[in-house]
Amino acid sequence: MRIGVFTDSYKPYTSGVVTSITTFRDELTRLGHEVHIFAPSYPHYQDDEPNVYRFYSVPSPTNTDFTLAIPIYPGLGTLVKHLRLDIIHVHSPMIMGRVGLRYARKYNIPLVFTYHTRYDQYVHYVPVAQDFAKEVTVKYSSSFCNHCDHIITPSEDIRAIIRENEVRKPVTVIPTGIPLQRFENGDPGWLRAHFDIPTENKILLFVGRLSKEKNLKFLIKTFRTVKDKMPQTSLVLTAQGPLEEELKAMCRDLGLGSRDVVFTGAIPYDQLVNVYHSADLFVFSSLTETQGLVLTEAMACGLPVVAVRASGVQDMVDDGVDGILTNLDTDELAAAICQVLSDDALYQQLHNHALLKAESLSARNMTLKLEDIYKRLITGRTYRPNRLLNVSNWFNN
After folding, report:
1. Which residue from 329, 307, 327 is spatially nearest to 318, judged by alpha carbons?
2. Are residues 95 and 150 in the same domain?
3. Do residues 287 and 169 both lie within one domain?
4. Whether residues 192 and 170 fall in one domain
5. Contacts for 21-29 with beta carbons within 8 Å, 24 or more apart?
6. Is residue 157 packed enough to be buried (19+ CB in 10 Å), middle (13-18) or exposed (0-12)?
7. How many CB atoms are located within 10 Å of the residue 82 CB?
8. CA dist., res. 193 & res. 206, Å (int)
9. Cβ distance 39 to 28 under 8 Å?
């Protein structure tokens, strides 16, 4: 098959969406398929992989690390036609998703959309009228889904949410798989070799973005409680993002020093395996995940997870089996962290089951499920009239 991937988020930007795209691309290529990626450009970045087509872009006003594609690419229609794409798979309902939709309709190509993000949970980046923005975002993303042929969600929770929002098209749950070979072996001393972490301290790890939706102020408050009960602990935040300075100031206000809470900045993906293997426990407090890919990456390295019970997260973590889930309560989360770190038998049980969970979510198995959907769509393709999104109809559906 010849697969066209249209995405607003791609290398060198790091995110769960980018990891998902690259993981599925690698596995689809191993299965003999041809993957073409259409994405925004980034200054001074040159692709080292074939079949990547970059759109001119501008920095995002709310996140200067991220660029927004200008949806104009001279000769794109001819290129898409020349590539003879069998499937178009979009990973956003926004700029590049709209481009993918346009060419799927123009050339009658089946269109798949992966619903990676709870878009309505990001309206805090809108400076005014956030309630209205949330309503518009929900209606827009649902309308976009209903113009696609098939929707992929990373979890059952997200499938239920979009069904409640009147998405009528077929929906299949396919989490992003884990390339197990990348996480099998890592350097357990890597973090201490690169950062000032006391040898005797247990390391709690978070991987993600330093942004409001990750609920990191709650996590740091929780760690303050953990630190009071178990002084020989450090929290490592492997991430970058707009809240970095604010979170560092918060740590100082709570009396947490640079050896207590370690900000590593962004770590290259090929080094993340060493970060995971250096840690003792993965901690997570986000309430807005569709899957929380970092949870399964941590499990692939044998790390037990202690997390706040939330959509997406509870699909990935079996409470009491491969991790512990708690309510949104600092004392409850802190108690669970201390329990896992102090109970060797419980820790070993969670460690063993975390490895088993990651194996069940291997990249190969998940990609075979996606491949099956592609094949069924191509085989059953029927022509439908050209219909593009109509803004005036968002509130009439």
Report:
1. 307
2. yes
3. no
4. no
5. 21/91, 23/176, 23/177, 23/178, 23/179, 23/363, 24/176, 24/177, 24/363, 24/366, 24/367, 24/370, 26/179, 26/363, 27/177, 27/179, 27/363, 27/364, 27/366, 27/367, 28/3, 28/367, 28/370, 28/371
6. buried
7. 9
8. 18
9. no
Using alpha carbons, select from 218, 109, 115 the residue that is nearest to residue 175.
115
pLDDT in tens, 48-94: 999 999 999 999 987 888 999 999 999 999 999 999 999 999 999 99
State which amino acid sits at residue 217.
K
- Residues 32, 161: one domain? yes
How many domains are there within the chain? Answer: 2
Same domain, 166 and 264: no
* pLDDT value at 128 more than 60: no
How far from 102 is each of 37, 298, 387, 389, CA to CA, in Å?
16, 38, 9, 10
Pair (297, 248) in one structural domain: yes
Copy the structure tokens of residue 203.
Answer: 């390391």
Task: Round to whole Å and give the CA distance between 75 and 77.
Answer: 6
Q: How far apart are the C-alpha atoms of 387 and 114, rounded to whole Å?
A: 20
Domain that holds residue 45: 2-177+363-393
Q: In this structure, what token pair is assigned to residue 316?
A: 């990935």
234 and 165 within one domain:
no
In the predicted model, is pLDDT for residue 16 greater than 90? Answer: no
With the CA atoms of 313, 318, 320 and 321 taken in that order, what torsion angle do they form, in degrees rounded to the nearest 10?
Answer: -140
Could you identify the residue written with the tokens 């010849």?
2
**Closest Cα to residue 306, out of 275, 357, 347?**
347
Q: How many residues does the chain have?
A: 397
CATH number of the domain that residue 307 is part of: 3.40.50.2000
Alpha-carbon distance 304 to 322, whole Å?
6
Q: Could you check whether the bond before residue 154 is cis, i.e. omega within 30 degrees of 0? A: no
**Looking at per-residue confidence, does 312 or 331 come out higher?**
331
278 by DSSP, 3-state: which?
Answer: helix
Q: 293: helix, coil or strand?
A: helix
**216 and 348 assigned to the same domain:** yes
